[in-house]
Amino acid sequence: MRRDEIADLAAFVVVAEERSFTKAAQRLGMAQSALSQIVRRIEERLGMRLLSRTTRSMAPTEAGERLIATLGPMLHDLDAAIASLGELRDRPTGTIRITTVEHAAKTIIVPAMKRLLPDNPDIAVDLTVDYGLADVVADRFDAGVRLGGEMAKDMIAVRIGPDIPMAIVGSPDYFRTHAVPSSPAQLTDHRAINLRLPTSGTLNKWRLMRGGRETRVKVDGPLVFNTIDLILDAALDGHGLAYLPLDQVQYHLDGGRLVRVLSRFTPDLPGYHLYYPHRRHASSAFTHFVETLRFRA
After folding, report:
1. Which of 40, 185, 206, 275 could form a disulfide with 155 if both were Cys (CB 3.0 to 4.6 A apart)?
2. DSSP string of 8-32?
3. For residues 160 and 273, is the Cβ–Cβ distance under 8 A?
4. pLDDT category, 279, cuts 50, 70, 90?
5. Is the CB of residue 129 less than 8 Å from the CB of residue 100?
6. Measured CA angle at 248 (ends 107, 293), to 5 deg
7. pLDDT, tens digit, for every residue of 206-235?
């Protein structure tokens, strides 16, 4: 394949990502008409349409989607290989894009930046909080953060935190009208404040111990959120029981604003891991980021 054909394909990927010739032209610093000619040239060469266009919108066709799925990882590796040349400089440089859940961002990643960023002023970290299990390759993230055991098998996984103690809590006001549960079976008599998982659209099941074995329990309730901060606020307001990391509720337990129940039935969750695809040319910035987060017991 000639170099101009490779450049054409890279330009097509930008157009498909932006879903707009105007935005893609601005991003690439070239004329919109030139981009349109490039896409037309690729379509003629392949003998099929890659983009479906109307006066109001544009989206990849099935053939376009398949081409993007193939080209995206290749271009990402090319970007990484070029970024790795930064190792020849005195200081690592580059932007690291991470998808993570809220709790890991607050308790692990943001605190770790105090160790990473002051000595590496040319590194930037772009965090996206998302409870969905993002495809880090397709979505062009450098890495993701999830609980141990939730990563795809073909990913490199680096442990970045200890196991996570969990707590089931409710406010004193809530327990004035609801009996304190003494076993997981009694949760059916209680109102729960739930977390919705965007990937499946289902509610997060609570991990509990029953008969010496861990099981996942669905607890019904009047409120559902997609952020643990709102779940905590609702629990403090007396709307029901919440299943949250202990470190997020300890302050309120100490102050008597929340009461913990069923502690002996609530196992720790496996610790967070950073996951990412194998790269032959990891940038110096990414290597610094990984080593800063790596958990050392």
Report:
1. 275
2. HHHHHHHHHHHT-HHHHHHHHTS-H
3. yes
4. low
5. yes
6. 10
7. 999 987 888 999 999 999 999 999 999 999
Averaged confidence pLDDT in the chain: 87
The rounded distance, in Å, linking the Cα atoms of 180 and 175 is 6
- Is 169:244 a contact under the CB 8 Å cutoff? yes
Question: Does 90 score more than 70 pLDDT?
Answer: no
Nearest residue to 195 via CA among 154, 166, 160, 172: 166
Reference 125, options 108, 139, 142, 137; nearest CA is 142
CB-neighbour burial class of residue 136 (10 A; exposed 0-12, middle 13-18, buried 19+)? buried
Cα 25 to Cα 22: distance, rounded to the nearest angstrom:
5
User: Alpha-carbon distance 245 to 250, whole Å?
Assistant: 9
83 pLDDT exceeds 60?
yes
Sequence letter at residue 154: D
Query: Taking Cα atoms as reference points, which of 102, 79, 14 lies closest to residue 51?
Result: 14
CA–CA dist 179, 94 (Å, integer): 54
Gap between the Cα atoms of 219 and 169, Å rounded: 13
Give DSSP secondary structure letters for 128-145: EE-SS---TTTTT-SEEE
The model's pTM is 0.69
Cα angle for residues 212, 216, 221 (degrees, 5° grid): 125
Residue 174, judged by CB atoms within 10 A of its CB (0-12, 13-18, 19+), counts as buried
Q: Which residues pair with 95 in a beta bridge?
A: 124
Q: Which long-range contacts (CB under 8 A, 24 or more apart) does 172-178 make?
A: 172/256, 172/257, 172/259, 173/238, 174/235, 174/238, 174/239, 174/240, 174/241, 175/259
Rounded Cα distance between 209 and 205, Å, is 13
Rounded to whole angstroms, what are the CA distances from 226 to 193, 206, 231, 258? Answer: 11, 15, 8, 21
Q: Grade residue 76 by pLDDT with cuts at 50, 70 and 90.
A: confident
